[in-house]
Design a protein that fits this description.
This protein has 153 residues and is mainly alpha-helical. It is built from 7 helices and no strands. α2 packs antiparallel against α3, α4 runs parallel beside α6 and α5 runs antiparallel to α6. It is globular.
């Protein structure tokens, strides 16, 4: 948006017009990508913070499956920023399972995490190397967590 357009909107609405849009977020697509980054980061942070409480809920496994479905879908996004954020959120979700102790919910979550990690890694490896490389770097950070907190035998 140009300053004149902002000023024009401000005059029509009778409010001060000092809103600026950063040049890197100047299209609807870029703004939507930033929204998706914030959503996937927020969801994974919420699960990490409240995993013991959330895992005790009756529908936990169905919700967990949907969360990992979202992470997988967005990790294969054409937007590198969204894909990297989704891949990085996998590590956050894995930390969530490790901090609540090992129980049935943590075991189920760990299995979903492992399967998602494999699918995201395969999809990133199939991308153009210039784009897939950054996503693989983000997903590799989660790899040690898969072995640090395996399910109980």
């Amino acid at each position: 948006m140009k300053a004149e357009a902002i000023a024009s909107v401000g005059q029509k609405m009778d409010v001060p017009a000092d809103v600026m849009v950063h040049h890197s977020r100047n299209t609807a697509e870029k703004q939507w990508d930033e929204t998706r980054v914030l959503v996937v980061s927020g969801i994974s942070d919420t699960f990490c913070r409240f995993f013991p409480t959330l895992s005790a809920l009756g529908e936990f496994e169905a919700v967990w499956e949907k969360v990992f479905g979202l992470v997988e879908e967005w990790a294969s996004s054409s937007s590198d920023e969204v894909a990297r954020a989704a891949a990085a959120s996998l590590g956050t979700l894995l930390r969530a399972t490790s901090e609540g102790g090992v129980d049935a919910a943590a075991n189920a979550a760990w299995v979903w995490a492992w399967q998602s990690w494999l699918r995201i890694t395969a999809a990133a490896a199939a991308r153009d190397p210039a784009h897939g490389e950054k996503i693989l770097a983000a997903i590799i950070d989660a790899f040690p967590l898969l072995f640090k907190y395996p399910p109980a035998p």
